Amino acid sequence: MKQIICPIDGKPCEKGCPDRYTDRKEGGGCTLTTAQELGATIINLGGGTYGSLFHPTNGKGGEI
Questions:
Q1: Model pTM?
Q2: Mapped to the 3 state alphabet, what secondary structure does the chain carry?
Q3: For a tag site, which of 14, 19, 32, 46 has the least CB within 10 Å?
């Protein structure tokens, strides 16, 4: 089974994380890991708050 890595600390998802999916057969993950899997960049907004940014060129440059 593939380990789901937390985009915040770069370690495998912790079982005690309050944001962790509890019903996912993959064994963890959260909205941030899902966004990252879909190509988002995870951004630390400060104060323990994180967001996700989707860019239309998917990090490959080019015009918007």
A1: 0.72
A2: CCCCECCCCCCECCCCCCCCCCCCCCCCCCHHHHHHHCCCEEEEEECCEEEEECCCCCCCCCCC
A3: 46
CA distance to 11, 23, 44, 60, 61, per residue, from 49 (Å): 18, 24, 6, 26, 27
State yes or no: pLDDT of 63 exceeds 60. no
Say how many residues make up the chain.
Answer: 64
Contacts 24+ apart (CB under 8 A), 50-54: 50/7, 50/8
pLDDT at 14 over 80: yes
Between CA 26 and CA 2 the distance in angstroms is: 8
CB 17 within 8 A of CB 5: no
Tokens 């080019």 belong to residue: 62
